[in-house]
């Protein structure tokens, strides 16, 4: 037997990188590879973590409890699907607010995913403009971003003793951000304690509190404490938000990039679910092409490219001896892109997961998006449900990708309509430009375009008025003498002043009360339309 000569040293640690599906499968099926490094990034920000920590007994106990709790709360059952569908419908309403305009999907999607976790953990979901939800989303994003800044900590654990490096790597900032989340979750915990009813279980917190109560006086060394509950909640949010958000984002982008695949999925949805109907998770077994597309997405864009393990005993793998205390990096990206297992792995081909007749899904033993063994991701079921149901709710949606497709579609009269429900139509019910009344739009658009032309749009007169406003805007910039300035603040009223010149026949000075009133309320109205559900 040989010592693992192909190991490397990253920082002060011995590391073995597992390449190839066979090596990964052999290793991760052995109990010796079930450990976690004793100095992981998530252990630093969440010291009591059971899921990302090195305490095997604690991990085994808490994982079993969490899995059973999620099952009791309805994972893979109708109740959880209903919660997910409710959140998807709210997410769709947010998309409608933009009326086809560009949108950063990640911001809206991340909040939607975290709300599904809120339903499981807190027994309730929050509206998009709820202060608690905004606080949670903002601080969860900050906490997630901080993880990448301190990732080197797991390879150089001694840097925590050097004050300069702690500041340079934002280690202390990361800890503070997680403490903010922990305090927020503790408030929810305190509220649950006051309203706990053993006959009416609402969520994961209730289940944990009852488990804690049942162990009082019986187990002096119990791990069922408030601090452990808070640590588990942190793990559920951190482990369940980012990866699932990234997966759904890649799914949306992939559907835009491959319209032929998107078309096949839409057709399968229409045939199995029915037009205008909401999908349910049980439909997935009758929709092999959609299921295969989800699987191919998770192979093609492997979100968790590396899984970090730690040998808890001396072990041999593929003829190599690996000593106890070695960091193991399982390279799932390599397993998913190895030409020995996958034909043309660089291409997005859902058909690779289908039988020859295309009627059933065929899984490969080299497909491992949720890791392998007993340390695999406990949220696999939840991920499949959310990925499948985000057909975009009960609405049939086609994403146009590519200049030619967009030009062809938007030149056809069949594409001139607006959705029957959108934010601007609610705020301004008579709106001809953003409403669905096609005849009103056609009439008013013709009239407005002719009026703008009569008022000098495209002629010297309007150019002079615009230049006058530009000069005023430049003076505002000069008044700051090169100091930092939020350009949006003077730019927005400057733009509205050009419209004032066309509509009211006059422009307003910057300190005019009428102008200030208009600008303030116009900004409030614009912001409210973005938040409106």
TrEMBL record:
Gene Ontology cellular component annotations, sorted alphabetically: endoplasmic reticulum membrane
MF-aspect GO terms: heme binding; iron ion binding; oxidoreductase activity, acting on paired donors, with incorporation or reduction of molecular oxygen, reduced flavin or flavoprotein as one donor, and incorporation of one atom of oxygen
Membrane topology: Peripheral membrane protein
Cofactor(s), names only, from the UniProt record: heme
GO BP annotation list: organic acid metabolic process; xenobiotic metabolic process
Gene3D superfamilies in the cross-refs: Cytochrome P450
Positions of heme binding: 377
Pfam families linked to this entry: p450 (PF00067)
Subcellular locations according to the entry: Endoplasmic reticulum membrane; Microsome membrane
Alphabetical UniProt keywords: Endoplasmic reticulum, Heme, Iron, Membrane, Metal-binding, Microsome, Monooxygenase, Oxidoreductase
Protein purpose: May be involved in the metabolism of insect hormones and in the breakdown of synthetic insecticides.
Recorded family membership: Belongs to the cytochrome P450 family.
Protein name per UniProt: Cytochrome P450 18a1 like protein
Organism in which the protein naturally occurs: Argiope bruennichi
Lineage of the organism: Eukaryota, Metazoa, Ecdysozoa, Arthropoda, Chelicerata
């Amino acid at each position: 037997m040989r010592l693992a000569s192909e190991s490397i040293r990253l920082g002060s640690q011995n590391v073995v990188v597992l390449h190839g599906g066979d090596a990964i499968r052999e290793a991760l099926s052995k109990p010796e590879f079930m450990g976690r490094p004793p100095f992981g990034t998530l252990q630093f920000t969440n010291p009591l973590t059971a899921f990302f920590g090195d305490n095997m007994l604690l991990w085994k106990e808490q994982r079993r409890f969490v899995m059973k709790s999620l099952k009791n709360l309805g994972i893979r059952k109708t109740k959880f699907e209903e919660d997910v569908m409710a959140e998807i419908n709210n997410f769709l309403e947010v998309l409608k607010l933009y009326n086809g305009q560009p949108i950063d999907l990640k911001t809206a999607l991340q909040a939607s995913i975290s709300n599904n976790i809120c339903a499981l953990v807190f027994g309730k979901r929050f509206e998009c403009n709820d202060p608690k939800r905004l606080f949670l989303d903002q601080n969860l994003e900050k906490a997630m971003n901080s993880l990448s800044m301190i990732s080197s900590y797991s390879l150089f654990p001694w840097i925590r003793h050097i004050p300069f490096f702690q500041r340079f790597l934002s280690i202390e900032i990361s800890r503070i951000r997680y403490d903010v989340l922990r305090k927020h979750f503790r408030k929810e915990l305190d509220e649950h304690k006051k309203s706990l009813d053993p006959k009416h279980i609402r969520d994961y917190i209730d289940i944990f509190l009852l488990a804690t109560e049942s162990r009082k006086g019986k187990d002096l060394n119990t791990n069922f404490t408030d601090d452990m509950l808070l640590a588990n909640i942190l793990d559920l949010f951190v482990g369940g938000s980012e990866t699932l958000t990234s997966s759904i984002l890649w799914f949306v982008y992939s559907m835009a990039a491959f319209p032929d695949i998107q078309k096949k999925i839409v057709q399968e949805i229409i045939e199995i679910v029915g037009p205008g109907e909401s999908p349910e998770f049980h439909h997935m077994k009758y929709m092999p092409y959609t299921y295969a597309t989800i699987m191919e997405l998770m192979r093609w864009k492997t979100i968790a490219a590396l899984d970090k393990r730690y040998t808890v005993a001396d072990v041999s793998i593929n003829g190599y001896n690996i000593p106890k205390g070695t960091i193991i990096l399982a390279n799932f990206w390599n397993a998913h892109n190895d030409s020995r297992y996958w034909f043309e792995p660089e291409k997005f081909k859902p058909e690779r997961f289908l039988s020859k007749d295309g009627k059933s899904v065929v899984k490969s033993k080299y497909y491992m998006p949720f890791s392998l063994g007993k340390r695999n991701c406990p949220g696999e079921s939840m991920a499949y449900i959310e990925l499948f149901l985000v057909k975009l709710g009960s609405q049939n949606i086609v994403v146009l990708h590519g200049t030619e497709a967009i030009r062809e579609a938007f030149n056809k009269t069949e594409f001139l309509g607006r959705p029957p429900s959108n934010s601007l139509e609610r705020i301004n019910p008579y709106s001809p430009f953003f409403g669905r009344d096609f005849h009103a739009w056609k009439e008013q658009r013709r009239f407005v375009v002719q009026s703008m032309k009569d008022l000098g749009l495209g002629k010297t007169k309007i150019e002079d008025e615009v230049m006058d406003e530009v000069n005023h805007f430049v003076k505002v910039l000069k008044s700051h003498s090169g100091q930092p300035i939020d350009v949006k603040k003077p730019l927005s009223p400057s733009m509205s002043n050009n419209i004032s010149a066309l509509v009211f026949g006059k422009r307003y000075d910057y300190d005019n009360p009428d102008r200030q009133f208009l600008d303030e309320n116009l900004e409030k109205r614009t912001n409210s339309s973005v938040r409106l559900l």
